[in-house]
């Protein structure tokens, strides 16, 4: 990699040994990744490691080293969601002990470290930092140092920003240096599609299953998706963006998709059309039957496969404002049809603090609370992902949560039926 | 029973000499899903916890030579590899058939520079490598990126 005079000086220690080490890390990474140079970051950061999990000792050690060296990030950053909310996601004493003492005992200390290094605001914790209410919304062409797979794929695909699938720590290092290695999705050729996906379904597919199917098929490929605009239209309105958020998150967690193009809809595809497709791409046709097969093959990891669900999580990634309203209406309509007022089981909907603030101003807020549903800002995965809570029969309509936990996946319509009493959750 | 040696050459990401036993994931390895359960309980021996990876689910990975196409999944992946290496419960080597992905590369880089880990990583070994190698095979790794497979015989191939 060709470094500038200033970059070489940092590597040689002009800004101290820790900055030199950070630069050395970025250079080793960039050279193996095939980057020819570092390029400036042009927008705020977003970091994936939001949880003060005790086991991540290397993180706290490196953060201390950064703070002790007086280093602050050149770009402030938002964070993924916090792991704990005892008010809205109640825990028994054992769970509380596991969360506070075993799992996330470093949370307070870690947030203090983040604040010292460049955390944007004390409540900037959500995986959907890019939503307008959160305000960390890059524009087309912005170069980012972000992690969080669902945020990266959204920024690249829906917003047209440029960001590689960075790992935790590298997200921070890029914002400290204000530079990232130029390769992959930062380059025009890295954004070309090597897969063509033809959507041949009879109706709009469930976003979470379509994303899962695409991710499993293409791995880290770049899919150019045809036939979806027939259902979604040609405008990136709030409803379509919510759909793409969920589809992208599933494709990133069930595979390693960091960028997708949707014909006539997403920015790169609108600008370049089929010229984005590489010569001799792989092809996949997705039908109703194909998606049903994907759905039917999800393993059920509950010990008792017919257990009564203990908890339902909706909102991984965090729901948008539009989704908060639509879920509220769908739940209340279904409850009314089933002659009920409140949901039949513990149900938690998760969204960002900023979306929740906006939602509180709408009449649907009280309507949702009246159904008994709890609203939280936590990361459901962080709640589920422990030996105590993880053993409980939890249901979800998030494919990411299904992938990383023993939670059982249901389609959104099935979740509505289960929590409103129309269908048994088995 | 005589066995045939099979030699492959890849690109050295983090080099070293090593002989060990292969554990093979034919599909992309979901790093977080694979390691998270063992990390949480601070297990000395990491056992693959990825329900979606039938090749290696519930298999011990610590000290083994992990053969895989690439890693997939959450962007915590690199940090997870770094942490596993810092605890010394990592696979001794990662052998990638494809070009190393950015998350795995992050993990190997962080482990090498910030943890002084001796973890070995070689990529670009080719599809044939992954088609050939089997769990239980003895693998010999050389510092120049040469990988030699000594196939386990039917009688000594261990299913772990």
What is the structure about, briefly put?
The complex is a heterodimer of chains A (426) and B (160). Chain A is α/β, with parallel strands linked by helices and 426 residues long.
Core attributes:
heterodimer; A: 426 residues; alpha/beta; Aconitase, domain 3; 3 domains; five-stranded parallel beta sheet; four-stranded parallel beta sheet; 18 helices; 13% strand; globular; B: 160 residues; Glucose Oxidase, domain 1; eight-stranded mixed beta sheet; two-stranded parallel ribbon; 4 helices; disordered C terminus
Question: Can you offer a commentary on this structure?
Answer:
- The complex is a heterodimer of chains A (426) and B (160).
- With 426 residues, chain A is of the alpha/beta class.
- Chain A folds into three domains: 38-186, Aconitase, domain 3 (2-Layer Sandwich), CATH 3.30.499; 191-296, no CATH class; 311-419, 2-Layer Sandwich (Aconitase, domain 3), CATH 3.30.499.
- Chain A is 41% helix and 13% strand.
- Chain A is built from 18 helices and 13 strands.
- In chain A, the strands form four sheets. In chain A, strands 11-10-9-12-13 form a five-stranded parallel beta sheet. In chain A, strands 7-6-5-8 form a four-stranded parallel beta sheet.
- In chain A, β2, α3 (57-68) and β3 (77-79) form a beta-alpha-beta unit.
- With 160 residues, chain B is α/β, with parallel strands linked by helices.
- Chain B has one domain (6-150): Glucose Oxidase, domain 1.
- Chain B contains four helices and ten strands.
- Chain B has an eight-stranded mixed beta sheet. A two-stranded parallel sheet of chain B has the order 4-6.
- In chain B, a hairpin with a 4-residue loop joins β9 and β10.
- In chain B, α1 crosses α2 (77-87) and α2 packs parallel to α3.
- Residues 155-160 of chain B have low confidence and may be disordered.
């Amino acid at each position: 990699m060709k470094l500038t005079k200033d970059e070489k000086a940092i590597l040689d220690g002009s800004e101290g040994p820790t900055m030199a080490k950070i630069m050395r890390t970025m250079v080793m990474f960039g050279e193996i990744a095939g980057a020819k140079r570092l390029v400036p970051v042009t927008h705020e950061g977003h970091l994936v490691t939001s949880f003060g999990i005790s086991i991540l000792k290397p993180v706290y050690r490196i953060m201390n080293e950064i703070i002790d060296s007086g280093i602050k990030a050149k770009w402030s950053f938002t964070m993924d969601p916090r792991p704990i909310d005892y008010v809205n996601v109640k825990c028994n004493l054992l769970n509380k002990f596991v969360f506070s003492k075993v799992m996330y005992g470093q949370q307070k200390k870690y947030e203090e470290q983040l604040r010292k290094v460049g955390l944007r605001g004390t409540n900037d914790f959500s995986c959907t930092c890019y939503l307008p209410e959160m305000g960390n919304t890059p524009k087309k062409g912005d170069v980012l140092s972000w992690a969080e797979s669902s945020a990266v794929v959204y920024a690249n695909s829906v917003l047209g920003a440029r960001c590689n699938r960075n790992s935790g720590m590298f997200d921070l290092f890029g914002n400290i240096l204000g530079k990232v290695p130029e390769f992959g999705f930062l380059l025009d050729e890295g954004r070309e599609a090597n897969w063509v996906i033809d959507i041949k379904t009879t109706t709009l597919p469930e976003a979470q299953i379509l994303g899962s199917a695409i991710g499993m098929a293409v791995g880290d490929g770049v899919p150019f998706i045809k036939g979806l605009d027939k259902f979604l239209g040609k405008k990136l309105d709030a409803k379509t963006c919510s759909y793409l958020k969920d589809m992208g998150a599933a494709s990133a967690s069930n595979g390693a998709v960091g960028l997708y193009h949707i014909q006539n809809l997403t920015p790169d595809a609108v600008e370049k059309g089929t010229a984005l497709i590489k010569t001799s791409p792989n092809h996949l046709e997705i039908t109703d039957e194909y998606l049903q097969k994907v759905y039917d093959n999800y393993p059920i990891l509950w010990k008792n496969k017919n257990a009564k669900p203990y908890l339902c999580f909706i909102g991984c990634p965090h729901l948008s404002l539009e989704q908060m309203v639509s879920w509220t209406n769908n739940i209340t309509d279904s409850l009314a049809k089933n002659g009920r007022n409140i949901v039949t089981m513990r149900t938690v909907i998760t969204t960002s603090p900023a979306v929740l603030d906006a939602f509180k101003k709408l009449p649907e807020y009280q309507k949702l609370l009246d159904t008994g549903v709890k609203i939280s800002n936590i990361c459901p995965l962080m709640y589920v992902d422990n030996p105590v809570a993880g053993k409980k029969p939890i249901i979800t309509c998030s494919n990411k949560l299904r992938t990383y936990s023993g939670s059982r996946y249901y389609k959104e319509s099935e979740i509505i039926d289960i929590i409103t009493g129309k269908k048994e959750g088995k | 029973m005589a066995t045939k040696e099979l030699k492959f050459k890849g690109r050295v990401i983090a080099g070293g000499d090593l002989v060990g036993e292969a554990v093979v994931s034919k599909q992309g390895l979901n790093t977080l899903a694979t390691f998270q359960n063992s990390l949480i309980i601070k297990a000395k021996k990491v056992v693959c916890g990825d329900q979606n990876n039938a090749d290696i689910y519930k298999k011990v990975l610590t000290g083994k030579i992990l053969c895989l196409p690439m890693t997939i999944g959450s962007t915590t992946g690199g940090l997870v590899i770094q942490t596993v290496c810092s605890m010394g419960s990592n696979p001794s080597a990662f052998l990638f058939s494809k070009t190393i992905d950015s998350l795995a590369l992050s993990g190997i880089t962080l482990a090498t520079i910030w943890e002084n880990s001796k973890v070995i990583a070689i990529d670009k070994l080719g599809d044939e490598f992954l088609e050939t190698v089997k769990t239980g095979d003895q693998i010999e790794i050389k510092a120049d990126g040469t990988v030699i497979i000594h196939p386990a015989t039917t009688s000594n191939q261990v299913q772990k």
